[in-house]
């Protein structure tokens, strides 16, 4: 069944683009359906922004607590807005990545390495999708468990305190919760789609750096020095492409990651305090615990795979000396040494406010 999500045009990013297209963030053709999804994006963004307007106008402490408690959903709006703003650059990066993979999959000895990192990406992606599904189930049922009804002190809790034209008591409460649940799931899809796409692109860079090491180890040809020079030029050109795409990737995610890391730190602190205050409520404890675990796993994925890219980038120049370079003529050895110096560069994810934001 999951095979249906694959797309031969996008070997690595097929399932992610299907999810992003389903949410309306990815729209190669801006048809009527895409425009309706764009309208839903505008409505969702307006709803979440209305929470901040209410906080400023009415200085409601409960509204501020709700924002801090469920702020990863608000970060989903930030991720979606930045994706929309830089859609042309995202499209260029995704198309370039897929073009590299389609070309490499024509080489039988390289295809197996591409399939290996695609398989890793799929395991991470589908695990994160499942985790998000169960986390959402826990989050969106929490207000109903905490509502206090009876004894003349009815209290109805919300997930998001955005504007809805309904009363705060039933039946208006249930209509409002329905709107919040639908828009919350939309934002959750934005988060899951963006996060897994970014992690998969990190896996792409780590995998392509491994493939570059294979090219480097085969760089010297005994029979023909011209072929060796051509291999050096090809490796250098491929490495420059990876640098170009990695710079573009960094410019697209650096600002979002900067905001995300600050906000998630505050959010985790708030949630841990809430867990410490829970008394005799196992359901609420498990719900909050699952939510924190999901947030920590989300952080771990970014740290783990960005670190893997950095680690692989440090091994590229060494792989040249795993070739039979010592049999090469002096002029070839000089070119190989120059290539080793050129590829001695660390790839890392920059977390800062980008100049392109």
UniProtKB/TrEMBL annotation:
It is found in: Cell membrane. Keywords: Cell membrane, Membrane, Olfaction, Receptor, Sensory transduction, Transducer, Transmembrane, Transmembrane helix. The keyword Transmembrane helix applies. This is Odorant receptor. Belongs to the insect chemoreceptor superfamily. Heteromeric odorant receptor channel (TC 1.A.69) family. Its main location: membrane. One of its GO terms (cellular component) is plasma membrane. The chain crosses the membrane at residues 38-61, 67-83, 124-141, 187-207, 248-276, 282-305. InterPro entries: 7tm6_olfct_rcpt (IPR004117). It holds the Pfam family 7tm_6. It comes from the Eukaryota.
């Amino acid at each position: 069944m999951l095979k249906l999500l694959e797309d031969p045009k996008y070997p690595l990013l097929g399932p992610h683009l299907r999810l992003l297209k389903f949410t309306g963030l990815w729209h190669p053709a801006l048809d009527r359906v895409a425009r309706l999804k764009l309208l839903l994006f505008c409505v969702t963004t307006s709803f979440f922004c209305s929470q901040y307007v209410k906080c400023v106008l009415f200085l409601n402490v409960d509204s501020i607590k709700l924002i801090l408690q469920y702020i990863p959903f608000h970060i989903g709006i930030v991720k979606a807005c930045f994706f929309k703003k830089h859609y042309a650059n995202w499209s260029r990066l995704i198309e370039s990545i897929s073009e590299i993979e389609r070309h490499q999959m024509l080489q039988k000895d390289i295809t197996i390495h591409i399939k290996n990192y695609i398989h890793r990406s799929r395991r991470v992606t589908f695990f994160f999708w499942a985790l998000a599904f169960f986390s959402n189930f826990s989050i969106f049922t929490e207000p109903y468990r905490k509502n206090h009804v009876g004894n003349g002190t009815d209290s109805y809790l919300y997930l998001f305190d955005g504007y809805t034209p309904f009363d705060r008591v039933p039946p208006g409460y249930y209509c409002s919760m329905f709107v919040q649940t639908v828009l919350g799931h939309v934002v959750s899809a934005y988060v899951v789609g963006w996060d897994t796409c970014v992690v998969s692109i990190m896996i792409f860079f780590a995998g392509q750096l491994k493939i570059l090491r294979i090219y480097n180890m085969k760089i010297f040809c005994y029979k023909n020095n011209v072929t060796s020079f051509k291999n050096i030029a090809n490796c250098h050109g491929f490495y420059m492409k990876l640098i170009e795409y990695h710079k573009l990737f960094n410019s697209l995610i650096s600002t979002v990651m900067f905001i995300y890391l600050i906000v998630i730190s505050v959010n985790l602190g708030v949630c841990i305090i809430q867990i410490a205050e829970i008394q005799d409520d196992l359901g609420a404890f498990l719900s909050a615990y699952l939510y924190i675990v999901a947030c920590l796993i989300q952080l771990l994925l970014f740290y783990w795979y960005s670190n893997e890219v950095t680690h692989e980038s440090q091994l590229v120049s060494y792989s040249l000396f795993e070739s039979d370079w010592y049999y090469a003529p002096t002029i070839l050895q000089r070119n190989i040494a120059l290539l080793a110096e050129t590829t001695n560069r660390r790839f890392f994810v920059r977390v800062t406010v980008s100049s392109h934001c």
